[in-house]
Amino acid sequence: MELSRLLGTSFACKCGRVHQVPVRKLVYAPGAVESLSEIIRQDGGDAQRPVLVADIRTWGVCGRQAEKTLREAGIGVTRVLVPDRPHAGPVCDDVTVQPLVRQLRGVQPDLLVAVGSGVINDLSKWAAFQLGIPYMVVATAASMNGYSSANVAPTVGGVKVLFEARAPVAVLAEPRIIEQAPPEMTAAGFGDTIAKQQSGTDWVMNHFLSDEYYCPFCAGIVADLEPLYLDHPEDIRDRRHEAIQGLFEALFWTGMAMTLVGTSVPASGGEHLFSHTLDMIAEVRGETHDLHGRQVGLGTLLSAALFQRILALDSPAFCPVPVAIDAGFWSSPAVVAAVAEQYGAKKARLEPIVRKISGHDAWDQLRTRLAAETQSPETIRAWLQRAGAAVSVADIGCSRERVKSAILHMHEIRKRFTVVDLAWLTGILPAQADDLIDEWL
Ligand SMILES: [Zn+2]
Ligand SMILES: [Zn+2]
Question: Which CATH class is domain 21-181?
Answer without folding.
Answer: alpha beta
